[in-house]
């Protein structure tokens, strides 16, 4: 599903990704780890088509995420580490997702409910006025409702309490079949039960890539 | 198309809720209210009176404050979203960059244009209730001029926003452009002329390239078709083209300029890293 070929990305003189090669196929549940500045976020953003590589390419189902972003992003769900301060109301944000990605609104409500987030009473509230945990729950609900084949989570549980984390992992377990699940995490123990592949990055390179039994 | 409308609609809704929009609307609405309270419609200066006089004053003030309002409020639209990671999330959905960028422009244009237009409409309605003559030709000209000036600066603002990484730098550039163009309405032009280093034609061409100057001359051209109050620029304009042609140019040129800047902004937005 995701093929990264000789990917190099520089920011000025700083090398963020150094000739990365990797492939993620269906049913790969990956924990992507490494110290700050290792290149994890750059790799994710390259997969999402945000960065123009200095060398190499990323292919998602054979498509370039920069040139074919609409087709590629139809198949990707993404939750960032920190929920951005979006000024839209929850209702507007859900409309944005519904219209742009043909996501069933009811499904977002369903997953939000499973995450113990009461969307209905907060529909007209600005997204950025929600608590950190509520924001994260909504973004997770959207990511699951989108029913993408590729799900990318950048430290998604940072704002969640232990109960919400359990709900999140339970939902993920129920919805991970035939997908690529890519976790950026610093806490392997939390996702150990979910992942079958562990990748470590350092200084823009993949230093280890191991398959593990779930 | 549905995504373009969606982005425009959401940007519009977001802007309407923003505090800057409230201030922006109050300033232009307040100006009109102030003119009525101050009795501008009853005064007569240089032969202009009634609503014509009020609209002329409104447009003269608008020349100065509209560009900076548009620049300051718009220049951060993309760079600000990039700064606070909104772009990273919103662009993770299958929306083309074309739809996102032009949708933002359409939404923002409606936001900046409507209050200035509505302020004029309110003036016309209030004037009509008071029994004043409605200067329709001036009203329609100003509607067109405000449209083109708004679009020119919106295009410039989006152009800046597309390549600047931080919103502080974007603001700095916006202020510089505003001061620069404002200076080239009068002060800088006069000083260039006084130095006698450049030909008059060059100086007049520079002034004619400035959308604020074009706006200013066109705004007064209906009151003073000979443009006698404008000095040497008037001779050049009237020698070069008819008054009707000049009015057309004053609407078409800034709009085209805005489109060109917006287009190049889009090219940069598309070619550069998004976040």
Could you name the key traits of this structure?
heterodimer, A: alpha/beta, 3-stranded antiparallel sheet, 7 helices, globular, B: 275 residues, 2 strands
Description:
The complex is a heterodimer of chains A (214) and B (275). Chain A is of the alpha/beta class and 214 residues long. Helix content of chain A is 31%, strand content 28%. Chain A contains 7 helices and 9 strands; from the N terminus they run βββαβαβαααβαβαββ. A 6-stranded mixed sheet of chain A has the order 5-6-7-3-8-9, sandwiched between helices. Chain B has 275 residues and is mainly alpha-helical. In chain B, α2 runs parallel beside α6 and α3 packs antiparallel against α8. Chain B is globular, with a radius of gyration of 20 Å. The two termini of chain B are 24 Å apart. The model of chain B has no long low-confidence stretch (mean pLDDT 86). At the A-B interface, α2, β5 and α3 of A face α1 and α5 of B.
Low-confidence stretches of chain B: none
Radius of gyration of chain A: 17 Å
Q: Hey, roughly how much beta strand do the residues of chain A contain? A: 25-35%
Name the chain pair whose interface involves the most residues. Answer: A-B, 32 and 26 residues
Shape label of chain B: globular
How many whole angstroms does the radius of gyration of chain B measure? 20 Å
Share in helix of chain B = over 70%
Instruction: Give the neighbour order of strands across the main sheet of chain B.
Output: 1-2
The description of the largest β-sheet of chain B is: 2 strands, antiparallel
- Helix tally of chain B equals 13
């Amino acid at each position: 599903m995701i093929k990264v070929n000789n990917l190099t990305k520089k920011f000025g003189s700083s090398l963020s990704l150094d000739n990365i090669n990797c492939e993620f196929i269906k049913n790969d549940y990956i924990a992507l780890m490494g110290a700050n500045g290792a290149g994890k976020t750059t790799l994710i953003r390259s997969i999402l088509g945000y960065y123009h590589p200095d060398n190499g390419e990323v292919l998602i189902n054979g498509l370039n995420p920069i040139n074919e972003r609409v087709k590629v992003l139809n198949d990707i769900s993404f939750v960032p580490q920190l929920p951005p301060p979006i000024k839209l109301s929850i209702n507007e944000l859900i409309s944005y997702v519904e219209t742009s990605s043909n996501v069933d609104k009811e499904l977002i409500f369903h997953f939000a409910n499973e995450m113990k987030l009461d969307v209905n009473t907060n529909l007209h509230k600005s997204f950025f006025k929600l608590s950190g945990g509520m924001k994260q729950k909504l973004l997770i609900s959207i990511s699951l409702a989108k029913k993408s084949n590729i799900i990318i989570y950048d430290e998604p549980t940072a704002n969640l309490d232990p109960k919400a984390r359990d709900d999140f992992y339970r939902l993920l377990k129920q919805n991970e079949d035939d997908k690529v699940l890519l976790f950026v995490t610093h806490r392997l123990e939390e996702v150990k039960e979910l992942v079958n592949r562990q990748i470590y990055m350092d200084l823009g390179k993949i230093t280890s890539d191991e398959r593990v039994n779930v | 198309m549905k995504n373009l409308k969606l982005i425009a609609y959401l940007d519009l809704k977001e802007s309407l809720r923003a505090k800057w929009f409230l201030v922006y609307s109050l300033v232009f609405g307040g100006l009109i209210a102030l003119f009525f309270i101050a009795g501008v419609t009853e005064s007569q200066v240089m032969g202009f009176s009634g609503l014509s006089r009020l609209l002329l004053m409104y447009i003269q003030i608008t020349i100065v404050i509209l560009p900076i309002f548009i620049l300051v409020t718009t220049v951060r639209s993309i760079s600000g979203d990039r700064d606070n990671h909104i772009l990273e999330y919103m662009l993770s959905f299958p929306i083309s960059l074309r739809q996102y960028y032009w949708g933002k422009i359409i939404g923002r244009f409606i936001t900046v244009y409507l209050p200035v237009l509505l302020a004029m409409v309110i003036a016309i309605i209030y004037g009509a209730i008071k029994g004043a003559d409605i200067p329709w030709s001036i009203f329609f000209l100003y509607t067109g001029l405000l449209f083109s000036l708004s679009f020119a600066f919106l295009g410039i603002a989006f152009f800046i926003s597309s390549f600047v990484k931080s919103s502080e730098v974007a603001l700095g550039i916006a202020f510089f452009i505003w001061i620069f163009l404002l200076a080239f309405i009068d002060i800088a032009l006069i000083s260039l002329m006084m130095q006698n280093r450049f030909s008059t034609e060059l100086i007049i061409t520079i002034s004619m390239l400035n959308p604020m100057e074009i706006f200013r001359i066109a705004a007064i051209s209906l009151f003073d078709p000979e443009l006698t109050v404008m000095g040497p620029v008037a001779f050049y304009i009237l020698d070069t083209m008819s008054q009707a042609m000049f009015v057309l140019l004053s609407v078409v040129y800034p709009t085209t300029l805005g489109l060109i800047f917006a287009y190049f902004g889009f090219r940069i937005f598309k070619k550069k890293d998004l976040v």
